[in-house]
């Protein structure tokens, strides 16, 4: 929506903050790191890309966590306020960047 700039980027941030089954903030990244992997995401004008890699024996559990971002995100008030500020800071930083 053009009247809500940054909404997709905000949701990109929020999905990493917890789900109904895995409510602990940071649990997803902890799990990924403990299983030899990495995770990241980015948003463009046209899409949001989520990526991760883990050891093959952790793939099923990683997919369970990842898929729940889209089916049962928590979107808590505490995280909402913080992530709005984070996205706004990134946006403002883009205007002052030398590149």
From TrEMBL:
Family annotation (InterPro entries): Metalloenz_LuxS/M16 (IPR011249), Pept_M16_N (IPR011765), Peptidase_M16 (IPR050626)
Entry similarity comment: Belongs to the peptidase M16 family.
Single annotated GO MF: metal ion binding
Keyword set, alphabetical order: Hydrolase, Metal-binding, Metalloprotease, Protease, Zinc
Identification of the protein by name: Peptidase M16 N-terminal domain-containing protein
Keyword Glycoprotein listed: no
PANTHER family named among the record's database cross-references: INSULIN-DEGRADING ENZYME-RELATED, NARDILYSIN
Keyword Nucleotide-binding: no
Recorded superkingdom: Eukaryota
The Peptidase M16 N-terminal domain, residue ranges: 2-90
Gene3D superfamilies membership: Metalloenzyme, LuxS/M16 peptidase-like (3.30.830.10)
Coiled-coil residues: none
GO biological process: proteolysis
């Amino acid at each position: 929506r053009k009247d809500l700039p940054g909404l997709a980027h905000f949701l990109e941030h929020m999905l990493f903050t917890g789900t109904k089954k895995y409510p602990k903030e940071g649990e997803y990244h902890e799990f990924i790191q403990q299983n030899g992997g990495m995770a990241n995401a980015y948003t463009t004008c046209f899409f949001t890309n989520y990526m991760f890699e883990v050891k093959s024996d952790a793939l099923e559990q990683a997919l369970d966590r990842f898929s729940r971002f889209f089916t049962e995100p928590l979107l808590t008030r505490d995280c909402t306020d913080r992530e709005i500020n984070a996205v706004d800071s990134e946006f403002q930083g883009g205007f002052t960047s030398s590149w």
